[in-house]
Amino acid sequence: NRAGQLRMLSQRLAKLYLLRLAGVGQKRFLQALQESTLRLDDHLLWLSRKTDHALVHELQSVWQEFKVQLDAPLEPQRWSVINRLA
Q1: In this structure, is the dihedral angle defined by the CA atoms of residues 50, 54, 64 and 23, taken in order, positive or negative?
Q2: Which among 2, 5, 27, 59 has most CB atoms closer than 10 A?
């Protein structure tokens, strides 16, 4: 269930990036981004406590890079990186 939620949240964040690129939903973007980011952080923390840290470490590394990309300047060419990370 937690893994499925991680997938859903990563896809939500990728969608939010595309909506932001298109200029849609700008007022709700920041709140949705913060909520999704907090939930994803919580799930990874829970997984790190319940499973082998070696398995979760890779997820955490990808998640850190994903956050860097989401915080970087908005650029259409960044979408391919965000999509891969999601």
Answers
A1: negative
A2: 59
